[in-house]
Amino acid sequence: xHILVIEDDTSTAGYLEKGLKESxxxxxxxxxxxxxxxxxxxxxxxxxxxxxxxxGIDGLAxxxxxxxxxxxxxxxxxxxxxxxxxxxxxLKSGGDDYLVKPFAFSELLARLEALARRKDIARTKxxxxxxxxxxxxxxxxxxxxxxxxxxxxxxxxxLEYLMRHAGQVVTRTMLLEGVWDYHFDPQTNVIxxxxxxxRSKVDKEFGYPLLHTVRGAGYCLRAPE
Length: 225
What we know:
By secondary structure, this protein is of the alpha/beta class. It has helices spanning 10-22, 33-42, 59-68, 84-92, 105-122, 153-164, 172-178, 190-202; strands at residues 2-6, 26-30, 47-51, 75-79, 97-100, 127-130, 133-136, 141-144, 147-149, 211-214, 218-221. It folds into 2 domains: 2-122, Rossmann fold (3-Layer(aba) Sandwich), CATH 3.40.50.2300; 127-221, Winged helix-like DNA-binding domain superfamily/Winged helix DNA-binding domain (Arc Repressor Mutant, subunit A).
């Protein structure tokens, strides 16, 4: 698993990173809410570990902001606040699980693995739809307004990634990681070329655009409101 740890206590963060790496996982660490929110929005993680009490932006606000931006990465909340009302508030804010400090690492790891399994199950859907654009992963077909759109393999993969993140701003870094596996220099224009080709196929001859450029940020596939 690729895990983002948002924890301001350096001792706890070090303990988590050491244990997770020894268990075969990769981690990224943020020491405050603002930095954690930025990393969570920019990266593609399997699970987030979010401390509830963070400097700047608290953990619940981080989670609420992510959910408002259609980021559905599973979140395990860590907190010293263990009352029922505290746990309920954490889950209602968009958290998927809640673990009270101090905790046993074996339990934390089991909870992370359970959250990752839920994400994998969610990803098994075989069809995606954004507006009048549909994609069938089993037949590898794409249609818009009932018309079949022929795509090259890389274009199909690019569109699939955008449809999985529909309504969310997808950065160039996310595309390089999710579609090209970082096989290309980030300065290359390969993304621009493929986005241009994809736009000409899914937007050009239709009534309204679905693929939008978000200046200075990336791209977003979304249907009109």
